[in-house]
Write a sequence for this structure.
């Protein structure tokens, strides 16, 4: 599910920040965000901009972000973590829209997109049979915590490379895709993976594998790899229209000689039933380093062992990411 980058939300809570006269710490959904004193009282509606909102130039209310290129980023102010931006609804023309309304377009906000990895030419659209890779941020979808409570689940490391989808149609040739496009066969890292793992013959017809392509020259290569590699996080059976559950996913990758993303925890039975599904606990689990490196990890991805659909996520699969706040503060580009 694409998150609502800018929407009408509520200031759930306000508290003073020791030593700071002009700002307060507010809570909006699962986010802590610093606001100007006097702009809100608890319970007020606000316009909430999630991190990676890029504000429009030439609007008075956006000018204060000019020095930071108009992008809303994670910050620490007077020792308080601030994620997102809450502004009064008076920046909107006309009446205040109802809670949850998406006002991204009305305000001319766009999402920050990292520059594309070079040169891999587009061959066509992303195949319609396969869901695109994406993960919602926990703080924007706290309802998933109730949905996962009591279920057996697993936690994988979120790798900081680039999304790769390989789809073998029932008829016709393998398709290799980046986040949004099928990519031309050629000397690019996607097709290098297709060849190394012989995906055109290894994948059963009708199946797609989705993974993170990591290696030298891709993002910061935080795994410290000496050559590119592919780490699978999803297997989709397009005929059945479903993702494989955890056990099938692991077995599928083993059988076909594919690597998976690192599985950090598999939590089942009594341990799953008594697990602390609080936001704070998840934020702790998201901290740490990529195994064998001194590089902070980007975070974790959490899913039930048995696939299920999520009402909170508008009917897409129950799965969410928790980004490491240390990474956001210190390492994010
Ligand atoms: P946002 O929508 O929060 O702004 P985004 O859409 O740019 O962020 P990411 O933060 O990179 O995307 O998170 C989703 C991506 O994470 C997936 O598309 C996938 O490529 C990647 N990813 C890396 N590791 C994993 C993993 N272990 N499980 C699932 N996805 C993963
Ligand atoms: Mn996304
Ligand atoms: Mn990413």
């Amino acid at each position: 599910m694409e998150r609502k980058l800018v929407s009408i939300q509520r200031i759930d809570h306000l508290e003073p920040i020791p030593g700071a006269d002009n700002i307060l710490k507010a809570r909006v959904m699962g986010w802590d965000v610093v606001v100007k004193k006097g702009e809100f009282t608890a319970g007020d509606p606000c316009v909430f901009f999630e991190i990676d909102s890029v504000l429009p130039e030439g609007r008075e209310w956006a000018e204060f972000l000019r020095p930071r290129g108009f992008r809303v980023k994670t910050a620490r102010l007077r020792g308080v973590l601030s994620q997102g931006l809450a502004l009064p609804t008076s920046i909107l023309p006309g009446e205040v829209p109802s809670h949850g309304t998406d006002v991204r377009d009305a305000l001319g906000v766009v999402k920050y997109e990292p520059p594309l990895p070079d040169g891999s030419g587009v061959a066509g659209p992303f195949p319609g049979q396969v869901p695109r890779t994406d993960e919602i941020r926990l703080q924007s979808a706290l309802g998933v915590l109730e949905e996962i409570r009591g279920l057996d689940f697993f936690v994988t490391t979120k790798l900081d490379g680039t999304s790769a989808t390989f789809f073998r149609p029932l008829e016709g040739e393998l398709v290799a895709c980046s986040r949004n496009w099928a990519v031309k066969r050629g000397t690019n890292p996607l097709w290098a993976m297709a060849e190394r793992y012989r995906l055109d013959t290894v994948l059963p017809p009708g199946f797609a594998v989705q993974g993170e392509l990591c290696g030298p020259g891709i993002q910061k290569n935080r795994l410290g790899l000496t050559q590119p590699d592919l780490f699978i996080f999803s297997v989709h059976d397009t005929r059945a229209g479903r993702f494989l559950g955890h056990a099938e996913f692991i077995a599928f990758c083993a059988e076909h000689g594919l690597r998976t993303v690192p599985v950090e925890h598999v939590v089942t039975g009594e341990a799953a039933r008594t697990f602390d599904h609080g936001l704070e606990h998840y934020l702790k689990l998201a901290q740490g380093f990529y195994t064998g490196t001194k590089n902070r990890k980007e975070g974790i991805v959490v899913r039930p062992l048995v696939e299920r659909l999520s009402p909170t996520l508008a009917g897409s699969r129950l799965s969410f990411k928790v980004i490491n706040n240390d990474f956001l503060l210190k390492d994010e580009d």
